[in-house]
Design brief:
The chain has a domain of 162 residues: Leucine-rich repeat, LRR (right-handed beta-alpha superhelix) (Alpha-Beta Horseshoe). With 383 residues, the chain is an alpha/beta fold. The chain is elongated. 12% of the residues lie in helices and 23% in strands.
Length: 383
């Protein structure tokens, strides 16, 4: 084919593609998701609406993909109108340019991966929320996600300004379940408050939120699953309520990604920015390597409910200065290990052991604890 003719054909193809893209972008496109539900893309806004009082969106998994997938780069905002009750699995995943989402109060569930891998998603707003379930991987790898906002009215301009200032995620108080990996690898999240309505937080729900510094957990939580906050290397504050009875394997381990288990071992391992922690009186066991390599940990308060202490408990905690314990008599390692095993790479002589008044001599005579500087603790430190 002649070179000039090739160039001409190429220009025609490009022109046709441009016309096709323009027609999709400016003139809009509509898809029927069901007999009563439609999706319309117009000027970068994808709108989902139904004529029913309550209707679930379809789920998209495997070979079934949403009809707007070919237009994914042209979607910047999603508006889901009242009546939609369930945001389908992977309905809006992999929309690279999506920034804002408005969800109706009628929505009760965000499906598996509903907004997963949307790297430019900033916020999701919910008016009069009844949302109960944030499904597994709902916001996984939304690296710039700043938060879920809820209220009686929605002012989109106000949301954009306030959430950038607050830099946190507000979970609506209608939510009962946060699924596994729900907010995984969210680089923008720095603080989170979880309401009392939440009873279940899945494994690795906030794993690798590397800028997360503070967490407040409600009294409705009984178990912290494995890896829930693993990889949160800047976590400095964690408030564990008295309702918690079980802390899963590698819950706060910032290296052991993907670790699975049902024991309590390694629960806070390598939480390098954590400086202090109080173990509530509902916890009964501190397992193997619970605080291993928490190099920033300076103080810990252990309740008298703890009756088992595992090996390498404070291994590598080189900054630990104060250990406050509430046992009326010395408690040895649950694995009958010596002090060198429990405090491997840590020198007990560098730390002060605060014990109940009147028990100092018991601890000084105990083979396991006698290497510490032992003093009577203040009453205000009791749990």
């Amino acid at each position: 084919m002649d070179v000039k003719l090739k160039c001409k054909v190429k220009r025609i193809v490009i022109f046709i593609c441009a016309i096709s893209l323009y027609s999709t972008w400016s003139w809009g496109q509509t898809w029927n998701l069901s007999e009563t539900m439609t999706a319309t893309l117009n000027d970068g806004v994808l709108t989902i609406e139904t004529t029913m009082d309550s209707e679930e969106m379809p789920n998209y998994q495997g070979l079934r993909t949403p009809p707007w997938r070919r237009n994914s780069n042209n979607i910047f905002m999603i508006i889901i109108n009242e009546g939609v009750s369930n945001i389908g699995d992977w309905a809006f995943g992999y929309l690279r340019n999506l920034q804002h989402v408005i969800i109706p109060g009628s929505a009760t569930t965000l499906g598996y991966g509903a907004f997963g891998y949307c790297p430019n998603l900033h916020w999701v707003a919910i008016e009069n929320p009844t949302l109960q379930i944030i499904g597994e991987r709902a916001f996984t790898n939304c690296v710039n996600f700043l938060g879920i906002l809820s209220g009686t009215t929605i002012d989109t301009n106000a949301y954009e300004d306030s959430i950038i200032t607050i830099y946190n995620t507000v979970i609506p108080n209608s939510v009962t379940t946060i699924g596994a990996n729900a907010f995984e690898a969210n680089k923008s999240l720095t603080f989170i408050t979880i309401p009392n309505s939440v009873t279940t937080i899945g494994s690795q729900a906030f794993s690798y939120c590397t800028n997360l510094t503070s967490i407040i957990l409600p009294n409705s939580i009984h178990t912290i699953e494995w890896g829930t906050f693993s990889g949160c290397k800047n976590l400095t504050s964690i408030d564990i309520p008295n309702s918690v009875t079980s802390i899963g394997l590698n819950t706060f381990d910032f290296k052991a990604r993907g670790a699975i288990g049902t024991s309590h071992e390694g629960a806070f391992q390598r939480c390098i920015s954590l400086t202090s922690i109080t173990i509530p009186n509902s916890v009964t066991m501190l397992g193997f390597e619970t605080f291993k390599d928490c190099t920033g940990l300076t103080s810990i308060n252990i309740s008298n409910s703890v009756n088992n202490v595992g090996g390498s408990l404070f291994s590598g905690c080189t900054a630990l200065k104060d250990i406050i314990i509430n046992w009326s008599e010395p408690l040895p390692s649950s694995r009958r290990l010596g002090v060198n095993a429990v405090f491997y790479r840590f020198k007990p002589a560098n730390a002060t052991l605060h014990v109940p008044g009147g028990t100092e001599d018991l601890y000084k005579a105990n083979q396991f604890w006698k290497g510490f500087k032992i003093v009577a603790k203040e009453t205000k430190n009791e749990i």
